[in-house]
Every structure is written in C-alpha cells, then in structure tokens.
From TrEMBL:
Residues of the full protein shown: 352 to 633 of 633
Native species: Roseomonas nitratireducens
Limits of the EAL domain: 24-274
Protein name (database record): EAL domain-containing protein
Highest taxon above the source species: Bacteria
Length: 282
C-alpha cells in the first residue's frame, strides 16, 4: 500500500508537459505508421449545381482507419500532422489518391482536394500537384484545390506567386470556409479564386435568420461581380437549398444530398441521382 502510494506520488510529480509530449510522440509514430501501411482513406462528398441539381464533382475528405475499423475525423489528427510536418507526405498521398479516383468518374466531373497551409507553403508543392496529375493522367481542369484563409497570413507576394504557379498548371483554386478566418477582402482582389466556399456556419441559419441571409447574399454577390462560383457547404435542409437558390448561389454540398461516401459507392450514387433528377442524367 505504501509502495503504491509512493509510485503514485512519483507519477504525480512527473511533469504534465512530459506526458503530453509522450502522447503526441505516440500519435506522431502512429501517423507515420498509417502512411506506411496505407491506413488512410478518402471519402467523397458530391457537389451539385444549385440550378440543375447535377453533380459537378466530389470533395475528397480524409479519414484515418483505426485498428478497430472505425474512421477518425481530420479534426483529431490534422493539427498534429501539421505541427510535425507529416501533413506534407499525407497531403501528397491525398492528391495522388484523389486524382486516381476521379479518373474513374464520368465526363468532366471534378475532384476537390483540401490543402493545408503548411503543405501549400512548401516550395515543392507545385511539383507535387504536377506529379499527381501526370501520374494519374487526370486533366488539370478537373482538379480543384481548396485552400483556407490561413494561407493569407504569409507574405502576400509569396502566396500570390504560389497561387499563380498552380493556376498555370490549369488547376482551379477554391477559398474554403470563407468568412471564418482572416477575413480581409483585399486578397480577393489580389488573387482571383475560381470558387468561394461559404462556410456552413452561415448556411445553417439561412432559412431562419435575416443576418445569415444577408451575409450569404453578400458573398454570392461578391462572387458574381468577381466572376467566381459560390459553393454553400453543409446544406442540410430543403429550406436552406431554397434560400440558396433565391440568392443565386451556384453550387451546394451537404448531408441533404449525401454524406461523404467511399469511392466504391460513387457509381451507385450517380445512378440514383440521375434517376431522382432527370435533368442531371444528360
Ligand atoms: P471542409 O473542407 O470545410 O469540409 C467540409 C466538412 O463538413 C467535412 O468534414 C464534411 O464531412 C462536413 N460536412 C459536409 N456536409 C455537411 C453537412 O451537411 N452538415 C455537417 N454538419 N457537416 C457537413 P470532415 O470530413 O470532418 O472534414 C473537416 C475538415 O478537415 C475539412 O473541412 C478540411 O478542412 C479538413 N480536411 C479534410 N480532408 C482533408 C485533407 O485531405 N487534407 C487536409 N489538409 N485537410 C482535410
Ligand atoms: Mg474543403
Ligand atoms: Mg469547407
Ligand atoms: Mg468547413
């Protein structure tokens, strides 16, 4: 009993910092292991044209497969992957895998890939994108890279140069989670994104709250005058979709249409939407 107390006391005085660092180190090792053993997987969530309800493409969403078969969400491991720099290798795998998957989809359907600002900052990033396209044979116009406002925290000349190098490859660029981060509008002038993705927090209250409607309307208007598409994320209800249609939002994504699905379910999903919305069948 005394001995156990002694050990407990010793553990108690072990610096808390150390325990946290050990846990992070263990997660880092597990992340490396996951890369090596292909324990990451991508789910795909459809993007639809608001006017026709045609599927225009899918966004690739990363999952980490655990030994018990469950899939961990990005929020639980992306921050550590960014801190350790492992996001660069993980992101490279995501790019290759997403381009390869998109090649199996019909026509001009595009794939959207999320890019961490840590990954974006690497001078080699443009080469990674070029290699992923070349290896898969996917047309660059079918790839859309989603960046967030955090990339704008860097020297803007460097950011604009990097975005222009990506644009020169023929890929499209979307500003993800618009309005939630470092929301200076001036960067929309310095760099013409192809798409503005309106964060779910604004979409959610669209049918109930006038202020949400005003914000979404303003973003859509901004997109229209700057020649950018506007995609509403997190659309869950018919009322939200009706609201988006009213303000002229061009694209939508959310549980109303589909949760993120594994790649093997994509053909069935496309077949079922084609019959649900004949306009989509073409
Ligand atoms: P995001 O890019 O804004 O992706 C949209 C998130 O909203 C996804 O969460 C998606 O599952 C979720 N979502 C979609 N429709 C609805 C809806 O109707 N209602 C609700 N409540 N949620 C909806 P997820 O998959 O957990 O991803 C979270 C974030 O993790 C993404 O946000 C993105 O920033 C990041 N992420 C995902 N995959 C990658 C990746 O491959 N690389 C990097 N760097 N980040 C990624
Ligand atoms: Mg995204
Ligand atoms: Mg988003
Ligand atoms: Mg979001």
């Amino acid at each position: 009993r005394a001995k156990a107390d002694g050990r407990g006391a010793w553990r108690f005085f072990e610096p808390a910092m150390d325990a946290r660092m050990q846990e992070r180190r263990a997660t880092e090792i597990a992340l490396r292991d996951a890369l090596e053993h292909r324990n990451f997987t991508l789910l795909y969530q459809p993007l639809l044209d608001v006017g026709t309800l045609r599927v225009s493409g899918f966004e690739a969403l990363l999952r980490w497969r655990q030994p018990d078969g469950t899939l961990s969400l990005p929020a639980t491991f992306i921050p550590l992957a960014e801190e350790t720099g492992l996001i660069v290798q993980i992101g490279d795998w995501v790019l290759r895998e997403a381009c390869r998957a998109a090649l199996a989809w019909p026509g001009q359907m595009s794939v959207a890939v999320n890019v961490s600002s840590v990954q974006f900052r690497q001078p080699r990033f443009v080469d990674q994108v070029r290699d992923a396209l070349a290896e898969s044979g996917l047309a660059p116009s079918r790839l859309e890279l989603e960046v967030t406002e955090t990339i704008m925290l860097q020297d803007s000349a460097v950011v604009v140069a990097q975005l222009n190098r990506l644009r020169a490859l023929g890929v499209r660029i979307a500003m993800d989670d618009f309005g939630t981060g470092y929301s200076s509008l001036s960067y929309l002038r310095s760099f013409p994104f192809d798409t503005i993705k309106i964060d779910r927090s604004f979409v959610r209250d669209l049918d109930a709250r006038g202020d949400a409607r005003a914000i979404v309307g303003a973003i859509v208007g901004l997109g229209q005058s700057l020649g950018m598409r506007t995609t509403a994320e997190g659309v869950e209800t018919e009322a939200e979709l009706a609201g988006l249609r009213r303000v002229g939002c061009t694209d939508a994504q959310g549980f109303l249409f589909s949760h993120p699905i594994p790649p093997e379910d994509v053909p069935d999903f496309l077949a079922s939407t084609a019959s649900a919305f004949p306009a989509a069948a073409e």
